[in-house]
Specification:
Blueprint: E1 4-7, H1 17-26, E2 32-37, H2 49-58, E3 63-68, E4 86-90, H3 97-106, E5 110-115, E6 133-137, H4 151-165, E7 172-176, H5 181-189, E8 194-197, H6 208-219
Parallel strand pairs: 1-8, 2-3, 3-4, 4-5, 5-6, 6-7, 7-8
Helix pairs in contact: 5-6
The structure holds D-xylitol-5-phosphate and zinc ion.
Length: about 220
């Protein structure tokens, strides 16, 4: 079963970025999770297009872009994307989800749909042929340091069941928000494949390399 770690770059120590990227490479981190927020879809601003460009120049680790922005269909073009990158767009952020997913794939990246805590996975029924994965928000999007929404745990197993019942056993599940060591274990048992690791686990003190190794033990 695929179990991959995606450090949430909005939580990293920007004054120590080069060293942290070296640790990510040494510990074979699979993705770098980039939260892009527009102050409209979510009440916050974070990382943007220049940061994505600079990261592509600084490391070969694929990027996992999480677009918490309105009308993403108009903005996919703004991002420099590589073929192993993931781009997640929110179901709730566009009237043209299928077209948006198509645009991501036309740029050679993997397309995923993110769903907020109140959105059931069955809303994705008509785009299952277009997606590489589903990103389940286990907190309300916009800020690091929040607490898991209890119903989100069951939503992971419900999503896995829904996907399997539609013959989509290859579609992955990513979880994002308060993915602590203990929560990660529970999320993994319920079928999560990609784990957004932020202040709840790997960045919670300055022992990044040790924390990543510890985190891997919890998601095995
Ligand atoms: C939430 C962000 C996440 C995450 C950060 O909008 O997308 O990256 O919450 O990690 P935690 O929740 O562990 O601080
Ligand atoms: Zn995120």
């Amino acid at each position: 079963m695929i179990k991959q770690i995606a450090p949430s770059m909005m939580c990293c120590d920007f004054l120590d970025l080069k060293n942290q990227l070296e640790i990510f490479e040494k510990t074979k981190i699979e993705y770098l999770h980039i939260d892009v927020m527009d102050g409209s879809f979510v009440p916050n601003y974070t990382l943007g297009t220049d940061f994505v460009k600079k990261l592509h120049k600084s490391t070969n680790i694929p990027l996992d872009l999480h677009l918490m922005i309105d009308r993403p269909e108009d903005k996919i073009e703004w991002f420099e994307l590589n073929e192993n990158d993931i781009v997640s767009v929110h179901f709730e952020s566009t009237n043209h989800l299928q077209r948006t997913l198509q645009r991501i794939k036309n740029k050679g990246a993997k397309a995923m749909v993110a769903i907020n805590p109140a959105t059931p996975v069955c809303m994705l029924e008509e785009v299952l042929d277009d997606i590489y994965g589903v990103l389940i928000m286990t907190v309300n999007p916009g800020y690091a340091g929040q607490k898991l929404i209890p119903s989100a745990l069951e939503k992971i197993s419900k999503t896995r069941k829904f996907l399997d019942e539609h013959g989509k056993t290859d579609i992955l599940i990513e979880v994002d928000g308060n993915v602590s060591y203990e929560n990660a274990k529970l999320m993994s048992e319920k079928g999560a494949n990609i784990f957004v690791a932020g202040t709840s686990a790997i960045f919670c003190d300055n022992k990044l390399e040790k924390n990543i190794e510890k985190f891997r033990e919890f998601i095995k």
